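Title: Prediction job returns without error message
Component: structure pipeline
Severity: low
Priority: P3
Assignee: unassigned

Description:
Job completed but the reporter wants confirmation the result is attached to the right record. Sequence as submitted:
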Amino acid sequence: MKHFDEAATRAPLSFERLVPALHAAFAAGAQVPPRHVHGIETAGSDGSSKGTVLIMPAWSDAGFLGIKTINIFPGNSARGLPGLHATYVLYDAHTGVPLAMMDGNEITARRTAAASALGASFLARQDAHRLLVLGTGRIARMLPAAHASVRPIDELWVWNHRAEGAEALAARWRAEGWNARATTDLEAAVRRADIVSCATLATAPLVRGEWLAPGSHLDLIGSFTPAMREADVLCFAGAQTFVDTEEALQKSGDLLDAMAAGTLRAEEVRGTLATLCRAEHPGRSAAGERTVFKAVGSALEDLTAATLVWQSRDMI
């Protein structure tokens, strides 16, 4: 059983490779059972120690089986720790033999950012170049590179509920060569953005629909449980809404709220990444329409990334 640490897991997963790999995987399909979700609260812990464990299996005709375990503890930010920790085990799907243990944090972050970019490749305007990122975590940090692999991103803004975190990330991006600035005025930043990408663990809406400009693309990465939300219900009113998988309609607090309010009906969701990648839906149809992409994550994405890592093992 081979072990891939963070660096070895990251090396084969450039967005120039991973986004097309996800496109091919969603077009081909795989076996993806519903994820297992378990709430975690140990005796004697305070409310900030509550967590969620997700167990996400998938297997493909290519002969690979993968299982990711991901631990989500939002209270970790107050401890100076990441809110997500994950491991990934890849197996031979024909025999069940374990092949590799991989860094699940790196797989999760890179496949999530890549799926965000894959959605934008169909739904953001071709000339979209102003990207606003909400959040400063591992996934948020990767979003400029991911989106720049599919759109001509040349202007970055970042907002965070802690302003010092946004300033630090903007400085980091500038050091990497990006034209990046932090903002404390979220409304103004949303109004001028071509793509608004939310990568937070928020439990109350951050983005208001009235702020979104015609022709903009709203990318919602957080809100992967019913208790989480990043966008208010008006974000979906009059927008062309797409999801990564049908599971989003049962898992996302954003979508559940919008459906309860009547600003979105399940039958009005235009498509999934699978229908987009199979060319069963063209995606954006007009420059002035507003689009929303809501993702809750799929084990298919994890399996695709892990397969890339495994197939590149001799080059690492």
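Comment from assignee: result matches the submitted record. The chain has a mean pLDDT of 94.
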